[in-house]
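Action item from last week, closing it out:
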Amino acid sequence: MTVPSSPPPPPPQTLVGERYLLAHEHVHLVHAMKRILAAHGADVVTADSVDAALRTLEAEQGRFSVLLSRAIFCDGTGTDLMRQVRARWPAIHGVVITGFGLPDEVKSFHAAGFAVHLLSPVTSDKLIASLEGLRRPPD
């Protein structure tokens, strides 16, 4: 006879109070990342292009803790997006998720304002740890 195991405990709510703008074109990745972030207590809004991300930022008056962005979109680059974000909403941290990891590429991401570079594929543990590291101290 098999005894049913209890479900695993929910993940710790380490991202409660944080708002994330997830800018990425791949629907399946967006759904997976949104689920992971929400399970840790985050409020996540998504955009599928540079233009959509900028419109969302404008509509929300830049009220996001972090921009999670891919490097290349059909309508621009994550680097251009981050530069515009830093110019208008300097308090927003940037995280780029990309397959580009050469030293010069990483330098260009940091120069654009990305605080964190994550090389894909990224594990949920690495993603959450990176975001926890960006948390602002309480006011």
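Closing note: Residues 19-130 form a domain with the Rossmann fold fold (CATH 3.40.50.2300).
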